[in-house]
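Q: I'm building a small set of examples for a reading group on sequence design. Run inverse folding on the following structure and report the sequence directly after it, with nothing in between.
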């Protein structure tokens, strides 16, 4: 019953968020199928004693993921000139949110330099853990950001902020990682979320083998690598890291090059090589696998 009550509370909160953010690009999904399955789960009614264990096992790994775009608007920004900025929140509802778990929330702003974004994220996380379990936390987080985030956007045109942003843009790197395999859903989610959080672009190729390519500020590349290293891997090797003179990608994406002849999560390497070549990094294929395509 606890799981049913949590999923019910999640759906109620999402419906309120959808009414607050009605435009298509204001609230959008990583995988809307999970949300629709959750609604069907509620329509089926609370699990009976006969099927409760099976239903609980099915949904304990159940996580709804979505993005919310929050408008930050305040006359204090940029010396009392009207200015509007936008924050993106990556939100994950664990299966036992909100009664027993907190939501996972990552904040992304293309306008803030890294130090200000880190400070805002820390303040937001401190606010989250101050909330009472059982409440509609994303609603409260959005309201908190609308009332407080503008403080971090003040003086973005100051010499210090401009210098920080110029420094970040100049010291960029790319890094290419080879994994024996990448299957785990949680790892794949973290690989993508952390890249977005740190403003890195590139791609994840899940399956066997697995490949992660990222480009961005050198400091953030190091932070990203340290986070990945703490996960459990059969094999993870940094094949190449170098100065990135110009980014090859505009976003971070998960790729899929499944082979029709394989049922073991192997990728079609021919399609992968074509993708690399189309993005002017075809040389990475030999670096990764030691052979020409």
């Amino acid at each position: 019953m606890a799981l049913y009550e949590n999923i019910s509370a999640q759906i109620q909160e999402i419906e309120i968020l959808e009414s607050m953010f009605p435009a298509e690009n204001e609230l959008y999904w990583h995988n809307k199928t999970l949300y629709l399955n959750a609604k069907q789960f509620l329509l089926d009614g609370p699990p009976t004693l006969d099927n409760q264990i099976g239903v609980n096992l099915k949904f304990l790994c159940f996580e709804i993921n979505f993005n919310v775009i929050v408008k930050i608007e305040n006359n204090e920004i940029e010396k009392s000139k009207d200015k509007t900025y936008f924050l993106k929140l990556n939100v994950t509802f664990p299966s036992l949110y909100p009664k027993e778990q907190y939501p996972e929330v990552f904040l992304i702003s293309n306008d803030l330099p890294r130090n200000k974004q880190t400070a805002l994220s820390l303040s937001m996380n401190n606010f989250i853990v101050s909330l009472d379990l059982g409440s509609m936390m994303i609603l409260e987080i959005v309201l908190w950001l609308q009332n407080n985030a503008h403080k971090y956007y003040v003086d973005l045109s100051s010499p210090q902020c401009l210098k920080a942003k110029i420094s970040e843009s100049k010291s960029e790197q790319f890094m290419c990682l080879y994994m024996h395999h990448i299957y785990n859903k949680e790892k794949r989610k973290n690989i993508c979320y952390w890249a977005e959080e740190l403003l890195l672009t590139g791609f994840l190729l899940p399956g066997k083998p697995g490949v992660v390519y990222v480009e961005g500020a050198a400091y953030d590349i190091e932070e990203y690598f340290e986070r990945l290293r703490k996960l459990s891997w059969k094999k993870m090797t940094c094949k190449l890291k170098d100065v990135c003179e110009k980014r090859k990608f505009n976003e971070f994406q998960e790729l899929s090059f499944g082979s029709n002849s394989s049922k073991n999560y192997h990728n079609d390497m021919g399609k992968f090589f074509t993708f690399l070549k189309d993005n002017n990094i075809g040389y990475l294929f030999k670096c990764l696998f030691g052979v020409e395509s």
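The domain at 172-289 is CATH 3.30.70.100 (Alpha-Beta Plaits).
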